[in-house]
Amino acid sequence: MNFDHFDFLAPFYDRVIPFSCLEKMLALLALPAPVTLLDAGGGTGRVAKALQPHLASVVVADLSAGMLAQARQKGLAAASAVTELLPFPAESFERVLMVDALHHVFNQSQTVRELYRVLKPGGRLVIEEPDLRVFAVKLIALAEKVALMRSHFLSPPQIAALFPADARLQLEAADGNAWLIVEKPEEK
Q1: CA distance 107 to 181
Q2: What is the four-CA torsion angle of 62, 68, 72, 75, rounded to 10 degrees?
Q3: Nearest 5 degrees, angle CA 30-CA 33-CA 38?
Q4: Three-state secondary structure along 43-104?
Q5: Domains in the chain and their CATH numbers?
Q6: Is the pLDDT at 39 greater than 90, yes or no?
Q7: Cys staple from 67: which of 17, 43, 75, 137, with CB 3.0 to 4.6 Å?
Q8: pLDDT in tens, 85-105
């Protein structure tokens, strides 16, 4: 993927695409107490910053240097990383989040494996993506291709199919967005 798009957008990304769904995200994450959270593909940290008061700690991982610079300016811990090879040990985070980013990664199945790998048993992963089953989202997908962003959108069932059989999955959809909530079973 050409990350020049994101480096260019970084300085004004938060103003153009503000995060306004804090209550929804808190409900989806089901935070039992302050936990550690990885915001994978978290860009400028706009979502991580909103969630930060509810967390013990948060790390934003992204490949775009421009986006990560914005996250660091917000006082967030930031890691330069591709989501297909996260620089964290297995079972590092109680919560993992990926908002509007899965369609931008090179290898979606490897990204899902990595997100699940760094999730602690009993933890929860939330992936928010535009719902490709909605016509307007299909137009967005086409526009991103025309803009040479190399995006590859998957439908929610296609995303769900990338997870291992032991994962407990729940799907919610509304207003052109889909949320896949994934729980990793406790170890036996």
Answers
A1: 20
A2: -40
A3: 65
A4: CCCHHHHHHHHHCCEEEEEECCHHHHHHHHHCCCEEEECCCCCCCCCCCCEEEEEEECCHHH
A5: 4-183 (3.40.50.150)
A6: yes
A7: 43
A8: 999 999 999 999 999 999 999
